[in-house]
């Protein structure tokens, strides 16, 4: 059967999500999930009918939260579907390209490769910022430039002045896709205020992180109305199940937003606790963190990752040499992780 698959698919290495990697333990800090298991109520009614393609109440709720107009908002099955929609809508297979800047989220490349779109790579600088001159020199046939801020897995913010310059460089050439999956932990750094000024800007958002709804699979794309209308041409007819819409609307209610903001403060405090504790240990480098995770460099990161794995503390190894990404869990999980690393390095 594999021989019947498209050649691009035959040679494709699937994205190794945290769940695909697996593991066994009682401390799971590998997927940047929230430790909060919030309860929601939804009925089993209306399931005999298809959902709206873009549920009005959900679109209006998220648009109000994000500070944009409903016509600038599209919802999808997680931000991952938003990535795929953008590639499918704007890139001709075997002709156009995307550009991304590693180390960063792996699904930009996977989505492009699956569809048969070229991937151009311009690595981040040594301080994990955009190499604007190299990007400008590699824009031939590029339709989409993906930028993640806060960046996964490094945790840093991309300089706003560089984002603005990138938007100017790509004007009338390419769409800049800002992946703001973790922006709810630092909303002041969002680029949403640039939407009206730059028609070539698209922003990806999700309820998976700060809203503690990773299992709901509900994401959003924010852009000007013309761009959103293009995406509506290629999105599935019924992308948002009725229960997903019901729960997401509750999460975006006044009470839901208040709970999310309280939990963000709690996670930020736990991040500071873990960062402070790790900083006291010898031979460790901890990088700037603006999301719900820390990137930590050890003298032997693979050894620390494996030792934690064997101990039932599931972290995420990184393509960056000797670096391990640690999601921020509840205080008990952070204490267990810090204690284990302290004992391992002593």
TrEMBL record:
Q: How does it assemble?
A: Homodimer.
Carrying N6-(pyridoxal phosphate)lysine, the residues are 209
- Keyword set for this entry? Amino-acid biosynthesis, Aminotransferase, Histidine biosynthesis, Pyridoxal phosphate, Transferase
Q: What protein am I looking at?
A: Histidinol-phosphate aminotransferase
What are the BP-aspect GO terms? L-histidine biosynthetic process
The record's EC number reads 2.6.1.9
Q: Which family does it belong to?
A: Belongs to the class-II pyridoxal-phosphate-dependent aminotransferase family. Histidinol-phosphate aminotransferase subfamily.
- Kindly give the HAMAP family that the UniProt entry links to this protein: HisC_aminotrans_2
SUPFAM superfamilies in the record, alphabetically? PLP-dependent transferases (SSF53383)
The molecular function terms of the Gene Ontology recorded here are: histidinol-phosphate transaminase activity; pyridoxal phosphate binding
Q: Which reaction does it catalyse?
A: L-histidinol phosphate + 2-oxoglutarate = 3-(imidazol-4-yl)-2-oxopropyl phosphate + L-glutamate
């Amino acid at each position: 059967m594999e021989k019947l698959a498209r050649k691009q698919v035959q040679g494709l290495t699937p994205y190794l999500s945290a769940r695909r990697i697996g593991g066994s333990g009682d401390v799971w800090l590998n997927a940047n999930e929230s430790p909060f298991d919030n309860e929601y109520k939804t009925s089993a009614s209306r399931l005999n009918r298809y959902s709206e393609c873009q549920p009005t109440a959900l679109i209006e709720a998220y648009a109000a939260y994000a500070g944009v107009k409903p016509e600038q908002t599209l919802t999808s099955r997680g931000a991952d579907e938003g990535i795929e929609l953008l590639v499918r809508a704007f890139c001709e297979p075997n002709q156009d390209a995307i550009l991304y800047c590693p180390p960063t989220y792996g699904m930009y490349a996977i989505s492009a490769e699956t569809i048969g779109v070229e991937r151009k790579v311009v690595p981040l600088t040594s301080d994990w910022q955009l190499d604007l001159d190299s990007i400008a020199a590699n824009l031939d046939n590029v339709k989409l430039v993906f930028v993640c801020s806060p960046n996964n897995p490094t945790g840093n913010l991309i300089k706003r002045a560089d984002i603005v310059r990138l938007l100017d460089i790509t004007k009338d050439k390419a769409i800049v896709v800002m992946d703001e999956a973790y922006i709810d932990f630092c909303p002041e750094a969002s680029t949403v205020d640039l939407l009206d000024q730059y028609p070539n800007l698209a922003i990806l958002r999700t309820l998976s992180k700060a809203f503690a709804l990773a299992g709901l699979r509900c994401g959003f794309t924010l852009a000007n109305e013309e761009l959103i209308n293009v995406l509506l041409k290629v999105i599935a007819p019924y992308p948002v199940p009725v229960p997903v819409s019901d729960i997401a609307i509750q999460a975006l209610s006044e009470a839901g937003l208040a709970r999310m903001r309280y939990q963000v403060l709690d996670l930020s405090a736990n991040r500071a606790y873990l960062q402070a504790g790790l900083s006291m240990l010898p031979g460790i480098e901890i990088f700037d963190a603006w999301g719900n995770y820390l990137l930590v460099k050890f003298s032997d990161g693979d050894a620390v990752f494996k030792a934690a794995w064997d101990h039932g503390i599931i972290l995420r190894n990184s393509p960056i040499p000797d670096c391990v990404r640690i999601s921020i869990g509840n205080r008990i999980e952070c204490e267990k992780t810090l204690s284990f690393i302290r004992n391992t390095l002593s």
